[in-house]
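Mods, move this if it's the wrong board.
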Amino acid sequence: MPLAPTLQKHLDQTVTYEVITHDPTMSSTRTAQACHVSGDRFAKAIVLRRDGGYMLAVLPASHHIRLPELRQHIGDDVALADESEIKRLFPDCALGAVPAIGECYDLDVIVDDSIQEQPDVYLEGGDHTTLIHISQAQFSRLMAGARHGRFSVHD
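Not the wrong board. Structure tokens:
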């Protein structure tokens, strides 16, 4: 499966990127391992339910989200979205392969500061065999409208 069409259109209009294909994997950590990429440089997306809407939390694959800290940053009660909600929000993506880009899916984003410290970033392409590689400058451009904070802890 190629890049998710919604994602590809947005990337083509916004940044310069590289597409990397890999053997199928079922988690961001396994994808990072299969592609020999540090989990600190792999941006995973976690879909959150918030005040009747949704948003994305973007953090390194090597980290776990800390909901209490996240709640402090966004000032709302948040919960993890379920699979049916994710499928509805990302109709052109496979479950478990949500790209860490919310703008093209009309979602607000909050980015963990630790991913901003990396020289380059990798993220899911919308399926379990495609990875996007971009420079930190390009990632920052994609995250220009996002909130920022520290809400994760390294595994």
